[in-house]
Amino acid sequence: MSGLCLGTVQLGMKYGVNNALGRQPTEEESFAVLRAAQKGGVDYLDTASAYGEAETLLGKFDVSRFRVISKLQPGLDQAADETSILREVELSLHRLNIQQLYGYMLHRAEDMENDVIVRGMMTARETGYVEKIGVSVYEPEEALRVVQSGDWDMIQIPYNVLDQRLDSTDFFELAEKNHVQVFARSAFLQGLLLMEPERLPAQLEKARPYIEKFRHTVAGHQCSVEEGAMLFSYCHPGIDKVVFGVDTETQLMRNLELCNKAESFKDCWKELHGAFSDVPRDVIVPSLWKN
Ligand SMILES: NC(=O)c1ccc[n+]([C@@H]2O[C@H](COP(=O)([O-])OP(=O)(O)OC[C@H]3O[C@@H](n4cnc5c(N)ncnc54)[C@H](OP(=O)(O)O)[C@@H]3O)[C@@H](O)[C@H]2O)c1
To answer: Residue 11: which CATH number?
Structure first.
């Protein structure tokens, strides 16, 4: 089974296709989420300098007991040099109020092509500011480049019931062979997978047949949609940590409970695995969800 990593974009800005809370959580609500995560044994936090107030909020909470992963600001000036990458890491450490990051990732996979940025990332690791370096990706081709290159210790991929694209490549085998730690985000596809088909926004109506098929499959195994979505990623043998987002402490507690049911999920997992190879890209890539 995988472990869990709490994502924090939801705590730093208003986010998500559904956003049941309808707003960004307050500082006190966010602290309640972090306290519950710590108490529940979640060891990892995923954040980024691009997540609005997230790093500063985490800095006000004591996150020194978590393994914190942050990401390089996307779109750094072309003239960025190694020193500017180190300065970005220092700024993140300062905002987070910690001495060392467990992980630091490129937020934009295109930055892998920039030798200066890659060298800056390696220097950040050599200086001890960062234990591991990695890349957060959106596309299977980018993921394959990361695990083939030998430069990176970790990767964050999108992965969920509707987005099983990496299973039809040798990504997971390569990640294991080359010792790249795999973090998988979007188990709930930003909340889309949990929505009632009748409540889908007009621009996501095309997701309806896949959502209905998913709901039908999990119901056949007496599983809830939350269980189906979370446990599908959690039970994947190639995923080290599932990066999940929540807006409330209640959702966090619920997600921890779901993971206790992993043992009984095997048959449902087998039926879902490989069953969604025809989902259009504009359903599984949130940046293509147009209003
Ligand atoms: N490029 C990148 O590196 C990148 C991109 C995106 C995200 N991330 C990271 O990944 C993390 C996860 O984000 P994601 O977009 O992938 O989201 P996700 O984990 O697929 O979905 C999170 C959303 O699902 C809903 N949810 C979660 N638990 C629930 C429960 N028990 N019951 C009902 N609803 C529940 C909540 O939305 P509602 O209540 O609003 O419906 C929540 O905001 C982020 O926090 C961030 O750290 C990284």
So the answer is: 3.20.20.100
Residue nearest to atom 42 of ligand 1 (CA): 246
Q: 159, 185, 223: which to mutate for ligand 1, most atoms within 8 A of CB?
A: 185
Question: CA–CA separation, 229 vs 258, rounded Å?
Answer: 10
Nearest-atom number in ligand 1 for the CA of 10 is: 45
Residue nearest to atom 38 of ligand 1 (CA): 19
What are the C-alpha distances in Å from 196 to residues 65, 177, 214? 37, 40, 11
CA distances from 156 to 72, 118, 167 (A): 13, 17, 15
| Structural domain boundaries enclosing 139 | 3-288
Tell me the per-residue pLDDT of 23-72, one tens digit each, with 9 for 90 and over: 899 999 999 999 999 999 999 999 999 999 999 999 999 999 999 999 99
How many independent structural domains does the chain possess?
Answer: 1
Number of neighbouring beta carbons within 10 Å of residue 17: 17
Terminal Cα-to-Cα distance of the chain (whole angstroms): 37
Encode pLDDT of 251-282 as tens digits.
Answer: 999 999 999 999 999 999 999 999 999 999 99
Q: What pLDDT is recorded for position 242? A: 98
What mean pLDDT is predicted for residues 13-19? 75
**Ligand 1 atom closest to 158 (CA):** 16
Instruction: Indicate if ligand 1 lies below 6 Å from the C-beta of 187.
Output: yes
Give 219 Cα–ligand 1 centroid separation in angstroms.
22
Q: Determine if the pTM surpasses 0.90.
A: yes
Tell me: pLDDT of 228 over 70: yes
- Integer Cα distance of 176 and 191 in angstroms: 29
* Ligand 1 in reach of 224 Cβ (< 6 A): no
Between the CA atoms of 45, 49, 53 and 59, what dihedral angle is there, to the nearest 10 degrees?
50
